[in-house]
Write the structure tokens for this entry.
Amino acid sequence: MQRFLRPAGMVGALLALAGCAADAELDTLTPKGPDARTIDALSDPVFLVAGVVFIIIFGGTGYLWWRFRDDHSDEEYPEQVHGNFRLEILWTIIPTVILVVIGVFTIITLTDLNRYEDNAMALSVDGDTTTWEPEVVVVGQQWWWEYRYYFGGTEGLDLSDARHLPPADIVTANQLVIPVGQEIELKMSSRDVIHSHWIPALNGKRDVVPGRTTYWKLEAEEPGVYFGQCTEFCGLSHSRMRMQAVALSPADFQAWVDQQVQPAAEPTDPAAIAGMAIFESQCARCHVIDGVNDETKGADLIANAAPNLTHLMSRTTYAGGIFNLYEPDGSLDRTQLEAWLRNAPAEKPAYAEGRRGMPAMGLGETEIDDVVAYLETLGTRPSMDVIVATEVE
Ligand SMILES: [Cu+2]
């Protein structure tokens, strides 16, 4: 008996450890929206059935192993049996029935998840009231997410080439801002390899494929922040390709839209003016700032593929959602941002020479200070609540 105690203790400890992560960001077992609940309503009973089957099979195997062990009490062979028609029929039929039932409910769940609502919400965009059928165009790219909002809808727009998408009302990165209580349709594509969009509290995974549009949806029941992660291995910094859905009340969402549709304000501070000049000469070949170089949007930019910086400060994370833009006290995390501008590939591995990710820009320290002064003018800081809730480790 003694020799079983150690392995049994280890298995027990492993099980206990596996249950340790309370409040795990990517927990699939705490749905916070109707689509995630649909999945949960399938996976919970399936897990239960699988658990019962597990106990019966392993319990039964263990019992037989114990009951018919060779205890060397005699040297006789036990009675040799071969085949039992009834039992074999039984253990073919029972699993078949279980699998068919699970299959039926799986198909029902899949159908539910692939059905899209015809919902709409009134929104004021740049002073005009429009009816927005909530949808966001999602672009995956090594190794960050772009979110594009077209409030007039995307019907009639050519979304087939993710490298040259039509100008949008709002373009942001890594933080998908949505109104609560609305089903948001995602129209997703990739600029390079296959990625997968996954915000487990709101819905399951869906692949994001270059040259194709895939559809998915999300809905949050409560205002809050829901963490996600690219979940299709996509190269070097795959694990650093994260995102968050930030669900706001309709009024807060409207206020966010009001800010985001504005072009960048002219800087007034001398350092920021100098920083803007550096942006125009060194960064504008990749990044867009509305009101500064958006007229070149989709033209000469390298692959048209770096985060739009117009409202950088309204986000709280950057570089695939792995760095905090703000300290927990709400002040700018200057050290991290400067390090990023000094040598981005040292902060987040990327093949910059292969036009993946942000290259080291070779800026001097004064230039970095000026650029930071300029970046600080871009966009409105979010509330402390959002800063705290969106903080990443
Ligand atoms: Cu990816």
Remarks:
- Residues 137 and 187 are 5 Å apart (CA to CA).
- The chain has a mean pLDDT of 90.
- The two ends are 45 Å apart (CA to CA).
